[in-house]
Structure formats: C-alpha cells, structure tokens
Amino acid sequence: MTAPSPARVAHGTFTIERRFDAAPARVFHAYADPVVFRRWFVEGKGFTIHEWTHDFRVGGRSGGRFRHGDESNHVWFNETEHLDIVPDLRIVLSYVMGRETPEGRIRNSASLATTELVADGAGTRLIYTEQGVFLESGDHIALREHGCREMLEGLARDLAAHS
Length: 163
Fold this sequence. Notes:
This protein is α+β, with helices and mostly antiparallel strands. It is built from three helices and seven strands. It has a seven-stranded antiparallel sheet. Strand 6 (104-120) and strand 7 (123-134) form a beta hairpin. The longest helix is centred in the last third of the chain and has 23 residues, at 139-161.
C-alpha cells in the first residue's frame, strides 16, 4: 500500500485597493501601534485570541494563536516577519498561516504581502497585494482574498470610530 500523495500546491496573487478618509500617517499608525493594530486586525466577532505579539520593525516578528467561532478543534496560527517598512508609504511582510493539531502544526499557506499607502487628497488609497502559495487547496486563494477584504473593513471601521 502506498502513502497518499500530498496535495498539489496552488499559487495565487490578488490586489485589493481601498480608500480611507484618513491621512497616510494615520493609516500607517493603525499598523504600527500594537494596541490599535490588535483592535482592528486581531480582535473580532467570534474570535478567541490565545496569544498575540506585534514587533513592528524590519526583522520584527508578529503573530499568534487564535480560534474562530465554534471550531473547537482548530487553533490557528499566524507567523509574520516584517521585511520592509517605510513610514507612511509601505509595509512588506511575509507570513505563514496554519492550524494546530494533536500531531503538530500544519502550515496551509505562505505569503508575501505588500501594503502601499498613497496620499489621495485628504485621505489615503491603500493598495494591498498578496502573493501566496496555498499548500492544501486552491480554494483557499479566494478565501484568503475574502479574509483580507474583511480585514480592511475592520481597519475602515476602526479609523471611523477613532477619528
């Protein structure tokens, strides 16, 4: 009997553009400040955060462990490294996501993500581009893009609520 072959990897790239009624410095601050970042990026309806760190500097590592909804058997993890940071202009990072199982950690994706902040009148045009390799299923590409759109909705709500 032969062991099952691992799933083929799927590669995907997507770009999301979003305008915010806040200056680039304010949008950048929402990424850089650990309290503000946790509020819009980490915390959310249905999430239980087991641990989270945010070391926002080139070479710094951020990430943690969390659970969403009733997925009582799935603890997810995010491991991020900040590769390039130019205040008020650009953030480049790499990250791995996956889930914890009794057998150990299973990585389901690895990505390179770039956030660009462009002044647009009194606001900011944010351009988010992610290049990823999805290790379990190509279906995860669309799910990741949807999740990133939701993430930016959280940023928009936070910027509006704390203006």
